[in-house]
Structure formats: C-alpha cells, structure tokens
Amino acid sequence: MTxxxxxxxxxxxxxxxxxxxxxxxxxxxxxxxxxxxxxxLGLPRGGVPVAFEVARILEAPLDVFxxxxxxxxxxxxxxxxxxASGGVRILREDVIRAQQIPRAVIxxxxxxxxxxxxxxxxxxxxxxxxxxxxxxxxxxxDDGLATGSSMRxxxxxxxxxxxxxxxxAVPVGAPPACEELAALTDETICxxxxxxxxAVGRWYRxxxxxxxxxxxxxxxxxxxxxxxxxxxx
Length: 233
What we know:
Helix content: 25-40%
Distance between the termini: 22 Å
Radius of gyration: 17 Å
CATH topology of the domain at 18-65 and 131-225: Rossmann fold
Structural class: alpha/beta
Number of strands: 8
Shape: globular
Oligomer: single chain
C-alpha cells in the first residue's frame, strides 16, 4: 500500500498537554477502532501519555517500545542517531561526517544508551515480555517528530517482529520528518504539520517531562481496563 500522511495546517494553537494531544490524534485513527489485531506502542517516555489516550479511545492493547536517541557530543538534545529494542541502530551519517564525530565516540554514546534502554524495558514491564506483534496492526505513537531518528529506529525494529501493518502516529511533526516516515511505513499520520515547526515542545502548553512512575501507572491503568488479549492466528 502506498504510504500516506494526513497533515493539518489549520490548528495554530498548542495542545494543553500530551493527553489532549492523544485525544486529537485518536480522532485521526478512528478507522482502526474495533480491530482485534490492533496494538498501540508508545515511545517512552513522552509518547506514553499520548498513546494511552489513543489506546483508550480505540479500545486496543497498550505497550511501550523503547527507543533511545544518540545525542550529539556537547549537544545531547540534537540526535545523530537512535537505537531501539531488537538491536536496531540508526545513524545520521551526513551529520556525523559533517561534524567529524569519531566512531569511538559514537560507540561510547551507544553503549551508554543501550544500558538505559535495558533499564527502562525492565522497569516498565517488570519482566513481562513485549505484547506479541506478529501478524498485527501496530501503531507507533510519540508526542512529536523533530528529526524522526527515534521513530525510524522504532519502525525498523518493529518490522523484525513481522507485523501485518506498521503505522506511525504523532500529534505534531516537522514536515521533512513526516514525509520521510511516510516512505518507510504503511501509513504515517501527523495530525499537525506546521511549516514553522522549530521544536516539539513549542506545540504544548505543558511539556513537562514524563516520569518513569507515570509510564508505569499509565500502563497498569490501561491493562486493568483493556487486557492484552491473544495475538491473531
């Protein structure tokens, strides 16, 4: 199927918070409601409150899919790549070459982030395995797309689990990142795609950091309401 995205240039006001963003995003995903093969995966930490609302409204199982950004030396908020569950690593080779970042430095950053990735997987799931994805329609949710590095790593890693369909859904995204993800997925939905993007946080009135405790609480609250169920045969 030809990848697609659904931009909305008509909403200049920021979201109140990630939960409000999730409600708006869920309205763009209404066609998936009722699918027995549907799984919602939130990218921790900020993507989980958004994914919580999407999963609640679509009445679908919710899980986390851990991805870690590889930050630029001296500017850790700027992504030079990302890693994800399953051993997937994405590097922005053009940036690495332009900045002349040594491979040893990249490897050191990656090792540090791999340790944090493993910690989060254990903390959030408490030893529970990832919800089965084989043969399912998987919607990957984050609170926004800036460079898209983390989401690209998530898409590649999720593909290793042989899902039937991979969808990326975010409340807001930079146009180049949304366009690039649209070419890698079965469908990419950026609810808002402002030309003057600058940063994800600009599009939220409350963009306070989501905590590990909040992630655990949201997963537990949703699991009590919507059991994971069995994977399709």
